[in-house]
Amino acid sequence: MFRPYVRLLRVPGAALPALASFVGALPIGMLTLSVLLFVRSSTGSFALAGAVSGALTAGNAIGLLLQGRLIDRYGQPRVLVPTGLACLGSLVLLVISARAPLSWLMLLAFVAGACIPAVLSCMRVLWPELVAERDRRDTAYAMLSMQFQVALILGPLVVSALLLVARPAVAVLVAGVMAGGAGILFAATPASRRWQPPKRSRTRRGSNAGARTLLVGGVLAGLSAGLLAVGIPAAAVATGTASFAGVLFAALSAGELVGGAAYGAKAWRTPHVRRLLGAQLLGTGALLLAAAAAGWPLALLAALAVLGLVLTPAAISSSALLDDVAQAGSLTQAYTSIVAASLVGAAAGNALGGWIVAQFAPWTPFAVAAVTLAVAALWTASRRFSLQLSRTAGSSTDA
After folding, report:
1. Is Transmembrane helix tagged as a keyword (predicted)?
2. Which of 191, 227, 232, 368 could be cross-linked to 13 through a Cys-Cys bond (beta carbons 3.0 to 4.6 Å apart)?
């Protein structure tokens, strides 16, 4: 299964930026937790800590949009290096200003989140340049997705390990050094320095429609994920097994890793649109199973593992479609826009999920998430021609 990934890393110029992108993804999993714990230890308030941590997440979403636009205009190194240094500097100021007013702490956290170097997005843009064969790009996008998933799992574990020997401030600074260092390392790679932003196209109306299709799908997928993030611990608490919530999340993550690895290792002949639609429909069914199994922890464990198997293929298919629908010279911006849209959707799903749990039964967030993903499938099906027409328009324009 892993041979395609090994061959991919042996592509000239691919290994070093792939490593830098993985190192740069780790702080994403570290900073939310480390900043939360740092502000809590400094102020004694989880409410204040949550506000600062939320500002960091909001900054990350907005920063992705801004960095995507700047990278497509000025290139990768000219954006990654200053943002990496700004991220580290903001986090150093945050640690120094531990007892400053809340507004100042939130501002620093927002800037730090906005300046986390978008190395994963840059790697996503480099893969089509490094790998000419379209079927091998699916493997590349699958590996990128798995890098992100592993980083989200390892990030909190790294923070926990650091807390055994140091204070939360050290974890914040370590994450900042990793973020800044990864941005500089990525920018120094030959592949990143060679990459040049293509000239923008103003005539590809079809590609605009296709990009909007994927963007709305990203919001709906994020909303479903946000509901799920609340529904899992709520179901564990309702069954008297609160400590089992971590195991349930682990089952979901394991399913996502296995599903992504298997998807990327296979040579597919089915068009990406059909794969995306099929994964969304299968995900809807898995969420309905999770809703039915919410009262039985072991059954819910199995349902979440099945759900994970199809979530990553859906994300990979959506990413792969960007090669067809993104306007010339705006691929980075298109990718970061979808990621940011999913973050906004997830935040809305968290808030909605909390209200649903307070008002209804613990299985309800899973059911609402299933409805949300079903709406995403209907949206994809109704807009499939925008994706197909984008491909045609793109090839004719590029010719």
Report:
1. yes
2. 191
pTM value is 0.79
CA 18 to chain centre: 16
- DSSP code at position 198: P
Cα separation, 279 vs 290, whole angstroms: 16
What's the gap between Cα 56 and its chain centre?
A: 15
Sorted by where each starts, the structural domains of the chain and their CATH numbers stand as 14-194 (1.20.1250.20), 205-398 (1.20.1250.20)
Report the 10 Å Cβ neighbour count for 260: 27
Half-sphere exposure of 60 (CA within 13 A, CB side): 24
Nearest partner of 377 among 277, 274, 310, 283, judged by Cα: 277
Cα-based angle 137, 372, 249 (whole degrees, multiple of 5): 70
Q: Write out pLDDT tens, residues 59-73.
A: 988 999 899 999 999
DSSP string for residues in 10-68: TSTTTHHHHHHHHHHHHHHHHHHHHHHHHHHHHHS-HHHHHHHHHHHHHHHHHHHHHHH
Q: What is the pLDDT of residues 217-272, one digit of tens each?
A: 999 999 999 898 888 888 888 888 777 877 888 888 888 888 888 888 877 788 88
